[in-house]
């Protein structure tokens, strides 16, 4: 795991190790006794991902450099590559990047002298969101084998859908897609079902946000009808299996993908997902720092609490 | 004091306790020996309020999450409510909110799982600004009883005026209002006086910034005449009582509400107000954390300096 | 050195002392054991300067206040002067300012109660960039005497050119200027040479960014021809002296001032410059804090590592 760029690079064991370390972090505090700087380079808006990265970084004791494109030399035309190399030059030990290009990391990850974490790449991948979704499912069911997971909504423009479908498939889950006409992704080889089939048969109903900002033109799905035809209404929630749960990466378009009253209902794990995001990001950061040798076990041993070292070593 | 939302909820004793703890903080350093996160959600521009909150939070040892609406999911339409619940979910222990709606807190404070501090609500309330104004007056006069306080300027659009008039009245001061035509607030039951009467008779002349950004249309008070007719000129300053002081929440429109030469004159407490802002905000934060049980006296005892614990306990 | 505003105020000895302390900081960690706040007031975009100031400040253990003009009271018309005095009032111990006015510091530095560092003044001065450029040259050649330094590009609009030419001249280097028609600065008394002469004869080729944002109208130098006629092409790099180096303050307009392949070539010190920026800024900050008596040697002694105190005392 040189960088954390794509779920495609992760083995089942690597994924499970991230989830396991994340749970370890929830239970035990752990500070890195070493001065480390991390820069968060977000070229697209973010609340959850960026803020939970910052919480994760501060919990680990890292110094956080908060970069804003609109007040930076990006305004003078500086590229992501030159920006990233600048942060390396001033002593940054790790980069977290979100960028609208689907493949922003290609040039960069070959030349980076520090580990890079993908916090969102266009409509292609969002691997840390995937890890927190996986953790939320794992907490519920203890396994991924033969779970039925429906990914519902704007599949075409959703990096969350892409990362999750690939990872869930690798972990042995059965992935189904459900979307309004025009939101399908033809290049994506999973079976499509209706929303009514999805809610009736699946263990996990993972809703997606409609990515208005990625649409080339106005969608042909009028907002007022969307919920009724393609979203999770209160009627559909009632036919879900007893143990089935609702996920959504948020921000939620209330009343469009999901009835507003369901956002905080008993099946909803939407805020649990956010909470899990802090711990999976801590796990990913720590794994990369260790694997790159930026920190070693001595730093960990100095501040270990409750068996953390053992767990890290056995990853 | 479940949240710190409105001066209307505060008893005289609670107000005085905030002022007393603020003075304690000025004299003694005090760190909370516990990892706590606070998020500052400012939906309107701020220099003084936001930065003095950050200084207060860092002096207390809190981790600060700096949220920017323009680079957050607010851009994707996320509401204040969902944003606040997101910060709760990722582990934030306290929220500080400024928002243009007069009543943004109504939905939120019922459902919040963490304490919320109002850092400005539309044109309705600005209770932490009020506390720092009160502290500045208290430092000068040692009491509020029978003090004559003139609040001068854009009463109608000023949340500072609303919070201060209510609190000063409760504390026994005599509040007078003075404003240009169109800037009166008809719903507000305090006597109006001319600026000339105000400067001659009052102990405190509290000027307000003209809230250009809240005006529906161009004011009928042309800028060039405003100072002469309604503002604090050098001539008017000369007729103030010997001990009388000038307050202004800032930013000052120099040459409009007040002659530019008076901003740093000997009667002015404008920069003293800002300094007091740090300490009243520390006091409010600490009181809420204690009252919610987020921190307890053990955390305080571990890092007490010079009798702080005793004072906190006797609030 | 009351403030760090202009290279004109610096003696040769003061410059060399900054470089020496910077090297000391690179080798030894040094934290100030005292709660100090610094505010970075950037009224123009910045990546390198701002972020390396923040890294420098955090490495020294300072609390950093990150000010954004677009979400501050600058939006309500507040001036730099009033903004700076506000930060003083809330307890800031040092200000770092970048502003588009050539002489923003004139009113401020007379009245400032805390040390101010100039992080860029219009097209006039950029003294901390100058210090890091000098350190990079000094690391290479061990002296400035009789070095030939060509400053190449948009001289007229470049604060980097102005600060560097003055300082290099004072230190005994021979400064040459080279620029496209319209980019000369008539008020600046150094000889002009062609880019071909510059690369053949100079020890240091210091390229400048074309300051598109400061041009009143479109330059008559079309972008497509600029590199060939006035920039550093691969052909020109080949005729540079064996030991000669390339500097550029960045961000680089790749393919305009310099062939993109040369940015990371063996002669390039562009990323080394950025790295040096962290340490010269630490040195400047520490010198000012000591000279103002904001910190004293006791604070330093408490956390000294490897002879730092001695060096500071002998400045």
From TrEMBL, chains A, B, C:
<comment type="similarity">
    <text>Belongs to the aspartate/ornithine carbamoyltransferase superfamily. ATCase family.</text>
</comment>
<protein>
    <recommendedName>
        <fullName>Aspartate carbamoyltransferase</fullName>
        <ecNumber>2.1.3.2</ecNumber>
    </recommendedName>
</protein>
<comment type="subunit">
    <text>Heterododecamer (2C3:3R2) of six catalytic PyrB chains organized as two trimers (C3), and six regulatory PyrI chains organized as three dimers (R2).</text>
</comment>
<feature type="binding site">
    <location>
        <position position="159"/>
    </location>
    <ligand>
        <name>L-aspartate</name>
    </ligand>
</feature>
<feature type="binding site">
    <location>
        <position position="251"/>
    </location>
    <ligand>
        <name>carbamoyl phosphate</name>
    </ligand>
</feature>
<feature type="binding site">
    <location>
        <position position="129"/>
    </location>
    <ligand>
        <name>carbamoyl phosphate</name>
    </ligand>
</feature>
<dbReference type="InterPro" id="IPR002082">
    <property type="entry name" value="Asp_carbamoyltransf"/>
</dbReference>
<keyword id="KW-0665">Pyrimidine biosynthesis</keyword>
<feature type="binding site">
    <location>
        <position position="48"/>
    </location>
    <ligand>
        <name>carbamoyl phosphate</name>
    </ligand>
</feature>
<dbReference type="InterPro" id="IPR006132">
    <property type="entry name" value="Asp/Orn_carbamoyltranf_P-bd"/>
</dbReference>
<comment type="pathway">
    <text>Pyrimidine metabolism; UMP biosynthesis via de novo pathway; (S)-dihydroorotate from bicarbonate: step 2/3.</text>
</comment>
<feature type="binding site">
    <location>
        <position position="209"/>
    </location>
    <ligand>
        <name>L-aspartate</name>
    </ligand>
</feature>
<feature type="binding site">
    <location>
        <position position="126"/>
    </location>
    <ligand>
        <name>carbamoyl phosphate</name>
    </ligand>
</feature>
<dbReference type="InterPro" id="IPR006131">
    <property type="entry name" value="Asp_carbamoyltransf_Asp/Orn-bd"/>
</dbReference>
<feature type="domain" description="Aspartate/ornithine carbamoyltransferase carbamoyl-P binding">
    <location>
        <begin position="2"/>
        <end position="139"/>
    </location>
</feature>
<dbReference type="GO" id="GO:0004070">
    <property type="term" value="F:aspartate carbamoyltransferase activity"/>
</dbReference>
<feature type="binding site">
    <location>
        <position position="49"/>
    </location>
    <ligand>
        <name>carbamoyl phosphate</name>
    </ligand>
</feature>
<dbReference type="Pfam" id="PF02729">
    <property type="entry name" value="OTCace_N"/>
</dbReference>
<feature type="binding site">
    <location>
        <position position="98"/>
    </location>
    <ligand>
        <name>carbamoyl phosphate</name>
    </ligand>
</feature>
<feature type="binding site">
    <location>
        <position position="76"/>
    </location>
    <ligand>
        <name>L-aspartate</name>
    </ligand>
</feature>
<dbReference type="Pfam" id="PF00185">
    <property type="entry name" value="OTCace"/>
</dbReference>
<comment type="function">
    <text>Catalyzes the condensation of carbamoyl phosphate and aspartate to form carbamoyl aspartate and inorganic phosphate, the committed step in the de novo pyrimidine nucleotide biosynthesis pathway.</text>
</comment>
<feature type="domain" description="Aspartate/ornithine carbamoyltransferase Asp/Orn-binding">
    <location>
        <begin position="145"/>
        <end position="286"/>
    </location>
</feature>
<feature type="binding site">
    <location>
        <position position="250"/>
    </location>
    <ligand>
        <name>carbamoyl phosphate</name>
    </ligand>
</feature>
<keyword id="KW-0808">Transferase</keyword>
<dbReference type="InterPro" id="IPR006130">
    <property type="entry name" value="Asp/Orn_carbamoylTrfase"/>
</dbReference>
<dbReference type="InterPro" id="IPR036901">
    <property type="entry name" value="Asp/Orn_carbamoylTrfase_sf"/>
</dbReference>
């Amino acid at each position: 795991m040189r960088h954390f760029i794509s779920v495609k690079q992760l083995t089942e064991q690597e994924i499970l190790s991230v989830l396991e370390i994340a749970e370890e972090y929830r239970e035990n505090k752990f500070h890195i006794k070493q001065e480390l700087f991390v820069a968060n380079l977000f070229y697209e808006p973010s609340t959850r991902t960026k803020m939970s990265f910052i919480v994760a970084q501060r919990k680990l004791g890292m110094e956080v450099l908060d970069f804003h494109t609109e007040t930076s030399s990006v305004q003078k035309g500086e590229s992501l590559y030159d920006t990233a190399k600048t942060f390396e030059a001033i002593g940054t030990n790790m980069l977290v990047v979100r960028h609208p290009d689907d493949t922003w990391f290609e040039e960069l990850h070959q030349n980076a002298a520090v580990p890079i974490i993908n916090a969102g790449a266009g409509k292609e991948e969002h691997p840390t969101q995937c890890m927190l979704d996986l953790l939320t499912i794992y907490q519920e069911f203890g396994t991924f084998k033969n779970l039925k997971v429906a990914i519902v909504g704007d599949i075409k423009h959703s990096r969350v859908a892409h990362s999750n479908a690939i990872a869930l498939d690798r972990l042995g889950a059965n992935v189904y897609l459900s979307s309004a006409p025009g939101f399908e992704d033809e290049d994506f080889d999973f079976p499509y079902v209706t929303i009514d089939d999805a809610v009736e048969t699946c263990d996990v109903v993972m809703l997606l946000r409609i990515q208005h900002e990625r649409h080339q033109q106005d969608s042909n799905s009028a907002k007022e009808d969307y919920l009724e035809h393609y979203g999770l209404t209160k009627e559909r929630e009632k036919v879900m299996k007893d143990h089935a749960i609702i996920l959504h990466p948020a921000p939620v378009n209330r009343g469009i993908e999901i009835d507003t009253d369901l956002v905080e209902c008993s099946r909803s794990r939407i805020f649990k997902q956010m909470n899990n995001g802090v711990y999976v990001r801590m796990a990913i950061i720590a794994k990369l720092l260790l694997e790159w040798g930026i920190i070693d076990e001595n730093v960990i041993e100095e501040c270990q609490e409750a068996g953390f070292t053992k767990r890290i070593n056995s990853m």
